[in-house]
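Lecture notes, continued. The same structure-token format from the folding unit now serves as the input rather than the output. Read the line below as a description of shape only.
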């Protein structure tokens, strides 16, 4: 694995390898000294053309925990905002000796262009491109699901500590909300299918993309029926991305109140879930729109844990891309 651009590129064994490595990384983070020497002397560049404090800090933390040198490059206020091309930016990073470049870009396909154009010799990690993909978010979501639902003693069984070596066969995941604008949904559908999970997308028809019938999942317009009848093991609420909606959110649903009434997760809908079911959200949340404060703060919610797991998963991704092996992780 030279780059991490899309969850569609990962085989089952590769995906499980990343999750297992993340479990090893997570085990080292309970120590008093959390740093590992594994990427000492390597340079990781966070190249963000789109704002995302949460993702940037997570990648920065992951790289520093592996003892890599980190350069944060923001497009705002840089030469990019003055008209510098993606190619010229890549050539600059190549001259600086970047070993890995974490790319977040408003245009779908930008990380793939960096990876295949030959402008720089570095591992490319896609940290979100347009409405296309967000592979590390999907991996941290899968890691969180596996910890709760596929480990020893969990409802779906599993192999080893925290489900190490296990896939997500038979686990049911409902992904709810603004699928149309969500790279998180696209990345998760592909990865969860690869790992054997069953996925249902729940959304108003105006927020489902053209061609969704070709995706390896079910679709539903009825959240209550999905929760009560299908009984998902995990419910992943998606943020309503008003900033990506031309004409405003009113072009996609009549009002925030109506959206919440039909597709928001609240206390009443929490009660429809099985005792073991978990609630997820990639963040940032629109509390009171797609998820109520009561649901977000409930015992079922693993939203804060997702953030913590993101560091371990991104440590794993950086380590595997730059070392090519799981050997030598000091546990």
């Amino acid at each position: 694995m030279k780059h991490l651009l899309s969850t569609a590129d990962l085989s089952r064994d590769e995906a499980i390898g990343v999750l297992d490595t993340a479990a090893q990384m997570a085990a080292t983070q309970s120590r008093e000294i959390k740093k590992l020497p594994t990427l000492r002397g390597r340079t990781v560049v966070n190249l963000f053309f789109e704002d995302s404090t949460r993702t940037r800090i997570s990648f920065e933390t992951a790289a520093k925990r592996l003892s890599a040198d980190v350069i944060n490059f923001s497009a705002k206020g840089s030469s990019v905002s003055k008209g510098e091309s993606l190619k010229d930016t890549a050539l600059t990073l190549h001259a600086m000796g970047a070993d890995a470049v974490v790319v977040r870009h408003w245009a779908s396909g930008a990380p793939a262009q960096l990876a295949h154009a030959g402008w720089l010799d570095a591992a490319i990690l896609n940290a979100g491109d347009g409405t296309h993909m967000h592979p590390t978010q999907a991996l941290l979501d899968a890691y969180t699901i596996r910890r709760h639902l596929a480990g020893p003693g969990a409802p779906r069984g599993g192999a080893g500590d925290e489900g190490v070596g296990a896939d997500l066969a038979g686990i049911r995941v409902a992904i709810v909300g603004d699928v149309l604008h969500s790279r998180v949904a696209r990345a998760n559908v592909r990865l969860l299918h690869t790992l054997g999970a069953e996925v249902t997308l729940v959304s108003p028809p105006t927020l489902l993309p053209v061609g969704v019938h070709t995706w390896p999942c079910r679709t539903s317009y009825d959240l209550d029926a999905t929760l009560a009848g299908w009984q998902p093991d995990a419910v992943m609420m998606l943020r309503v991305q008003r900033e990506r909606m031309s004409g405003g959110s009113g072009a996609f649903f009549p009002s925030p109140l109506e959206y919440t009434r039909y597709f928001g997760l609240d206390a009443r809908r929490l009660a429809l879930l099985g005792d073991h079911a978990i609630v997820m959200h990639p963040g940032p949340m629109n509390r009171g729109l797609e998820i109520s404060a009561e649901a977000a703060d409930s015992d079922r919610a693993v939203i804060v844990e997702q953030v913590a797991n993101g560091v371990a998963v991104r440590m794993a991704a950086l380590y595997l891309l730059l070392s090519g092996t799981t050997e030598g992780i000091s546990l």
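Point for the exam: The first helix runs from residue 12 to 28.
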